[in-house]
Amino acid sequence: MALSFALFSSILAPETHSLTLRPQALPPPSRLRMLRAVTSATVSQSEPSAGKVRGIMKPHKVSPEMEALVGVPEISRTQALKQIWAYIKGNNLQDPENKRVINCDEKLKKVFAGREQVGMLEITGLITPHFLK
Fold first, then answer.
1. Which whole number is the average pLDDT over 52-68?
2. Model-level pTM greater than 0.70?
């Protein structure tokens, strides 16, 4: 065993010795070039495009059932979802054993296609038909 270790170390010794850096091998400082790292401070922000609101932030007209729930005739998807969650929590409609399940009352049944219970991740899909084009 000692023989194989000695053989192994004798093979590696010249290799590790050749990997040491000599000061002569480094380039002189005058030939080094400094590169600037890109950070959030150096990245230019694009100007907002004339304040246009797009996507899920854009207000849309909603169905009468959704209007009865959120209280306004036109609302963005994000705000509608916030209003629905405020209604759910305000009326204590989450299942006490599994908070991911919502027990629907009459207003929510109209919006959620008459379902008795809805999973919290299903809400966004169920409100989609209530946003009119």
1. 91
2. no
